[in-house]
Amino acid sequence: MRTMHFIAAATVWVLGVSASAAPAHGDAAHHGAHAPALKKVQKAWGIAGDARAVVRTIRIRMTDDMRFTPDRIEVREGETLRLRAENKGQVQHEIVIGTAHGLEQHAEMMQKNAAMEHGEPHMAHVSAGHKGDIVWTFNRPGSFAFACLVPGHAQAGMIGSITVLPRKR
Questions:
Q1: Which of 20, 49, 74, 163 is the most exposed place for a label (fewest CB within 10 A)?
Q2: Which residues of the chain have pLDDT under 70?
Q3: Does residue 97 contact residue 133 with C-beta atoms inside 8 Å?
Q4: In Å, how far are 14, 48, 83, 92, 144 from 19, measured between CA atoms?
């Protein structure tokens, strides 16, 4: 019996270590069941949301023609959304939300180091045939962007826009 407990504990530990050590653009998911909770940090485009506060889900299809469908999203300030990225292609894709300038800088870093580790709540890395979610509270009005920052993908047109309309007064 003690052997069974040891094997189960060792398996959980190995799974936890492998989930937390997943490469940024490999086949492993970044937000698995064993991943540590991500710190919520206010960004210009909002803050990581609580899944219980989601008011709607927007499905975003990613394909190997380097396009998102839809590529334009409109939300109201204060809304918490689930952006469900569905990779319908044959290669790894990701969706990262941010400012156009910030995404451009991040894409440049990715060109230099495609294997760099990162896994923030405003990112979802999605293997071919899989889905990934971003739960985000858009608490600041403005124009923002989303892109696939796998080297070459955004440059080929895999970008989109998010318009956050001011709260109704």
A1: 74
A2: 1-38, 114, 116-118
A3: no
A4: 9, 20, 22, 17, 30
